[in-house]
Amino acid sequence: MKFSIKRSAFIQSLNTVSRAISSKTTIPILTGIKITADAEGLILTGSNADISIETQIKTDNPDNELEITEPGSIVLTAGFFVNIVKKLPDTTMQLTVGNDLQATITSGQSEFTIKGLSASNYPHLPEIDTDDSVTFSGDIFKEIISQTVIAVSTQESRPILTGVHFVLKDGQLLAVATDSHRLSQRVINFSGSDREYNFIIPGKSLSELSRMIEDHQELQMRIAENQVLFIFGDTYFYSRLLEGNYPDTSRLIPEESNTRIQLEAPVLLASIERASLLSHASRNNVVKLTIDPNNAMIKLTGDSPDVGTVEEELEPESVDGDALEISFNPDYVKDALRSFGKTMIQISFSSALRPFTLKPTEDGDSFIQLVTPVRTF
């Protein structure tokens, strides 16, 4: 194999596939990047147990300055190879692989020789044997990921909760995640497919995918039995799907409430951040919210026996219903509030020991965050 390429274009693609490579893998060849050269260009592949990323650098794109002199393939250790390419002195570089799997990298007056591995030993990427695909707007899908992935569980004791549950049917896409302490659900109208889909993607895979999608980029999704493939630009992103039945989360969302407050999400977020400065010093990490409808006032309290207390009063846009005192983990509520941006929200409570919901005041059913309170007595 032999080719020359513009270094900046190569680095960009190397960075893309490196996202899928883990140094902790038990399969040594997966610490490497697979490089395949043919008449159409280069195909770079990186993989771990959960995700695989494949991207193409095409010869017909003049910006790549790619010339394939001799086709072939090799696997090169990602850590060494990527760092070498980034440090090369010239704007272009050449890679030559001999029959002994020694790769020679030259650029300007610099020359490196590193050992490679046979590409024939690299695991095959999953086969997605379907032409059925669903197309999303990249910015919408990124928003859905950011609003739901915050609630996935980090505990492997219930693996199914480490993913986001997607249901596509009846012209709607529902995405929901819960770790049993909180829940995040987003619903959008979607008419891009007549088929029904029901699948669970690991939260870690979605977080990585979100970092790669560019705004206004079209995103094509294909589902197989236990794999999902996302196609965007010249990149293919594969992720395994979680197997099993996701719990019925619809029954967790209260239909009625006895106390409601409305206020700007950033105002409450800033106040809880101040209150949690002291609550974080306490082993319990709890903030108390006191709602007084008679005086149209709410009060936040945080304390640590070793440090001190903080108390702050807020005037919400509106408050109605019964008086209430409720305690919660401030980190859960801060995550929920950040996902709303600068929106006006309504928080609805049914009792001091029942989960409460946060929704935007406009189109409230499209986005729901739910938090379970903390019992303090």
Automatic annotation (TrEMBL):
Q: Look up keyword NAD and say if it applies.
A: no
Q: List the keywords (alphabetical).
A: Cytoplasm, DNA replication, DNA-binding, DNA-directed DNA polymerase, Nucleotidyltransferase, Transferase
**By its UniProt entry, which CDD domains does this protein fall under?**
beta_clamp
Gene Ontology MF: a single term: DNA-directed DNA polymerase activity
Compartments, as annotated in UniProt: Cytoplasm
Gene3D superfamilies referenced in this protein's UniProt entry, alphabetically: 3.70.10.10, DNA Polymerase III, subunit A, domain 2 (3.10.150.10)
Question: Could you tell me which residue ranges the DNA polymerase III beta sliding clamp N-terminal domain spans?
Answer: 1-126
SUPFAM superfamilies found in the cross-reference section: DNA clamp
Q: Which domain of life is it from?
A: Bacteria
Q: Where is each DNA polymerase III beta sliding clamp C-terminal domain found?
A: 251-374
Residue ranges annotated for the DNA polymerase III beta sliding clamp central domain, each copy included: 138-248
What job does this protein perform? Answer: Confers DNA tethering and processivity to DNA polymerases and other proteins. Acts as a clamp, forming a ring around DNA (a reaction catalyzed by the clamp-loading complex) which diffuses in an ATP-independent manner freely and bidirectionally along dsDNA. Initially characterized for its ability to contact the catalytic subunit of DNA polymerase III (Pol III), a complex, multichain enzyme responsible for most of the replicative synthesis in bacteria; Pol III exhibits 3'-5' exonuclease proofreading activity.
Supply the NCBIfam families for this chain. Answer: dnan
The entry sums up its family as follows: Belongs to the beta sliding clamp family.
Q: How does it assemble?
A: Forms a ring-shaped head-to-tail homodimer around DNA.
Protein name as catalogued: Beta sliding clamp
**GN (gene name):** dnaN
